[in-house]
Every structure is written in C-alpha cells, then in structure tokens.
Amino acid sequence: MRRQDPPPSVLTPELAQEIACDIGRITGFNVLITDRSAVVIGCGDRERLGTVHEASYDVLRTRKAATHTARQAREFTGVRPGMSLPIIVGAQAVGTVCLTGEPDEVRRFGLVVRRQTEILLTEAQLLRSRMLHERAVDDHLRDIALYDPEAVDADTVEGRARELGLDPSVPRTAVLLDVPLGSGDAVTVSRMSLLRTVREVFPGGQDVAGELTAGRYLVLRAADGRRAPLAARCEALVDLVGERHGLAARVALAEPGSGVAGMHASYQDAAATLRIGPVLDPGSRVFAAHDLRVPHLVASAVRHDRTRYADALLGELRSRPDWPDLRATLVAWPECGFHLVRTADRLQIHRNTLVHRLARLTELSGQDIRHPKTAMALYLACLADLLTPGGVPGVR
C-alpha cells in the first residue's frame, strides 16, 4: 500500500510565534513551541528559532509532560531548565510547548499553558476548516456561473455539490446580489459579514450562497414554486444590507433551473436582469427576470442591429428636447395594455395630457401610435434606444 503523507499541521511557525509571545507576556516565563519534529518554531528568544529542542523528542514520543532540572538540561542540546508538554490536537501530538524556569515553579503553570495553546490551535483549525469550506462553496457557485458543457462534465459539478451536502436534483433559483464597494464605508464591510446577512435571509438547508467577485454574491435558492415570497425575501435582503452595512444594494432573481445546465441558465438570466433592470428602472432595487423578458431579448441583439432599428423607427424624435417624456409614453402605453387611465397613472399625468401626447406622437412619427402593431414596434425601438447608450452588452 502506498504511504500517504500526513495532513499539514495547523501549528504554523507564524501562529506558534504569536502564541509563544502572547503566553510569555501573560505568564512572565520564556515560552518555546516546537513542531512535531522537535524544531523550535515559536519562542520569545528569537535566536532559538530553527534549533532542535532535544528534550521534546521523548515528550512527542510518549505524549507525556517532562521536567528538566539544570543538571538534566545540560545533558541535552538546546534545552534549558523547565517543563515540556505535548500539544495534542484531535488525537495527534502536533508539537510541544516548553516553559523555561525552575521545574517546581513552572509546573503550576504548565498544564494551563498547554491547555490554552491547544484551545488556540483548535480554534485556528476550525477557522481554517471554515475557510476551506467557504472557498469550496464559492468555487461551486463559480462552476455554475461559468458552466460550459464543452469544457466541464456536469457530473463533476454535481459531485462537488454532493460533497457540500447539496442535492443536485433539487431545482434552484438564482438570486444575484450586487453591492457597490470601493468608496466610503463600503470598503470596510467584510465579505463574511455580508454573507451572514445573505444567509440569514436564505437559511434553507439546500440554499447555497457565496461570493462570485468583490461585491457580487450569488444565492442558489432551493425552489418551492412560490415566486412572490422569493421577491419579498429579496426586498428584505436589500433592506438588511442597507440597515446593517449602510450599502445600497440591488438584487435580481430568475426562474428556477434543474441540473447544472438549468441553474447556469437561471444565473445567466439573473445576471442579464441585473444589467438591464437598473437601466430601465433606476429607482427600483429588486428586478425579476420574468418581468424583463422582452428587454432581455432586445439586449441580446447585436449592438449595431439595435442601433439601426432604433434609428429607422424613431428618426428625429430623439433630437427633440421633450424626447425623455415622449419615450416614457411610448414605453408605458403598450406595457399598460393600451389603457388610457392606467398609462396616465403610471406617467403621473392627466388623462387629457396623455391623449394630447399620443396625438402629438402620431403627428411627429407619421404613424398611428394607437395601433397596437405600430405601438409595439416603437416600444421595441425605445427599449433599444434605452439599452444601447448605457453600454449594456448583448446577452449571449
């Protein structure tokens, strides 16, 4: 059988030096820490770093503490009077902690110092384990976001999901949180602090949340078939991010997807929605992909084709000083079902003002704006006009 190398020890030289100096300051004793090979990796006396502490060999072998008088210490290399104790993490002796001084004096502190050292190492080990888990979660989410069936086998991605305790057969909805970072207090907000807030809103055992890039977080929400509660959760998430972290966040949610390919498609829709939604409705904070299917389709066209289409239908309308109002009318008219009262309410204008504006549009464009086919053509042209100047790339 091939011999396996032991796992790397959590007792690193950096951590050992920090522990040795901290405990030394508290106790007043010179504290020395060795690794599992009895090499000094932490000590208040830096000249001893890298030397061998011979007395630690037996301590590591027997896993029992030992004291050394001045006479006994002279029989070893690199040993001073004091006490040496094994550091046990789990079932393994990972090193020793040694206190320099008269054996009778240091014996009173030895067990306490060893226990404190073991507690610090256990906490460091748990932190390292959590960090590795978080990295695995982030990697899995990136696998979904960047999935390419020509380059990666879906079974491989599903296998990694199972390692994280996730059932890959459960349909999941992509929820994408965008938090602007890099100015003011935003740069001081930690990744884990934001993730705790995200996971508080999405606490399901089959929900998975992590960081894709700085300031962008992805949640794959285990689908329950109810769209409205999910939108409400997204609103709650934006509120919490604002209250706790002082950041103005935006969220996009898509439709559920099954399997790796389905969840990848859900993520793509959420990403496209997060690009398109704020352009069309800057005042909103939560955007749903199912509400933006038509703009998504327009945005997916090549930029040059979008520009030509808008130019052909809108002509000189875009050069008019009242073009923003005219464009808002052309967008609201079909979206409100060609209903005068609903359209006027959305635009916050009087019904008679809307009637006058529709007549004006018919006159300026040379097309009957009240005809649904004409209105829809102009509506798509307005969407192309809105999406192109902002540099929203086509979604492919």
UniProtKB/TrEMBL annotation:
<feature type="domain" description="CdaR GGDEF-like">
    <location>
        <begin position="156"/>
        <end position="276"/>
    </location>
</feature>
<dbReference type="InterPro" id="IPR051448">
    <property type="entry name" value="CdaR-like_regulators"/>
</dbReference>
<feature type="domain" description="Putative sugar diacid recognition">
    <location>
        <begin position="11"/>
        <end position="141"/>
    </location>
</feature>
<dbReference type="InterPro" id="IPR008599">
    <property type="entry name" value="Diacid_rec"/>
</dbReference>
<dbReference type="InterPro" id="IPR042070">
    <property type="entry name" value="PucR_C-HTH_sf"/>
</dbReference>
<feature type="domain" description="PucR C-terminal helix-turn-helix">
    <location>
        <begin position="326"/>
        <end position="384"/>
    </location>
</feature>
<comment type="similarity">
    <text>Belongs to the CdaR family.</text>
</comment>
<dbReference type="InterPro" id="IPR041522">
    <property type="entry name" value="CdaR_GGDEF"/>
</dbReference>
<dbReference type="Pfam" id="PF05651">
    <property type="entry name" value="Diacid_rec"/>
</dbReference>
<dbReference type="Pfam" id="PF17853">
    <property type="entry name" value="GGDEF_2"/>
</dbReference>
<dbReference type="Pfam" id="PF13556">
    <property type="entry name" value="HTH_30"/>
</dbReference>
<protein>
    <recommendedName>
        <fullName>Sugar diacid utilization regulator</fullName>
    </recommendedName>
</protein>
<dbReference type="InterPro" id="IPR025736">
    <property type="entry name" value="PucR_C-HTH_dom"/>
</dbReference>
